[in-house]
Amino acid sequence: SDKAARDAVTLFKPATATRVRYSMYTDTPMPVDEPMAENPPDGAVIEYRLAANASGPVKLEIVGEKGRVIRTFSSTDKFDPPQDDGNAPWYWFRVGKPLPATAGIHRMVWDLHYERPTGQPCSLPISATPRQTKCEPEGPFVAPGPYTARLTVGDQAYTQTFAVRMDPRVKASATAIAQQTALSLGLYDAHETSVARQATARELRAALADRKTRTPSLAAAIDSLDAKIVAIAGAGGAGGRGGRGGGRGGAPAAGSSGETFASTAASVLGPLNVLQDADEQPVTAVVAGATERITAFKALEARWAAVTTDLTSLNLKFKAAGLGEIAVR
What we know:
Order of helices and strands: HEEEEEEEEHHHHH
Number of helices: 6
Radius of gyration: 23 Å
Strand order of the largest sheet: 2-8-7-4-5
Shape: globular
């Protein structure tokens, strides 16, 4: 029954979470033999109870005010054990843990960030915290405001709302934080979408190459569309690391013929990292650089929409030739 299902799982209401930067060290961590204790959790503490072991995966989603799923955690998540990486010893790293699916009361902490940018290697800051240092670049901080924790066990979902507030020591105005958030999220979404578009472009080009061998009469139309895809998507994988100095990675100006999803993905993380370095009013130069990158990305999206229109027309010809249509994710 519904009551039995509700009794089997309890999602407790989280307390208000405070957006505090987890490490304010200025250099590498203290020696391992130095007495020390854990800091309080840096984020939203979410607790739940399972009356019995879950028969399937357990999933926890963090949902924003407009219904956007910001983070997803699961009992099926996989994490590599910590290990030395160059000059960074294994005990600097924060190691993730899958969401527990066993009977009992469980606690997890969401760090109030979006997911890390796709495809980026792990880089540690010099301000490391023993056993708690997170990989950089991070996803941007979420804005202060209301959020929802949604726990799914089996086919039953449980929700609780909670609030995120700013560190009370921060003196920046709410307007400044809102601007920082809007620009950061615009850059972050430009990166994630650009990476996804490159993957879609590779799949689309492979499908077009297959159709070309099977319908030589459409070779000219296929080559034309393939050239458009290359011109928009560019080459390479998930983009550059976009270092903390805010470098643009040599990206061309918005609207230029050389702008691609590859160059956009490589150029947005620099200004994003600058915006996220401190909770303060973004300076004019950073606002201008971030705005230009977001504008360039939107222009690419408009060009990509034209590609999907051309593909629709070509799919009609594939269908007339007795071949299946090419779908775009």
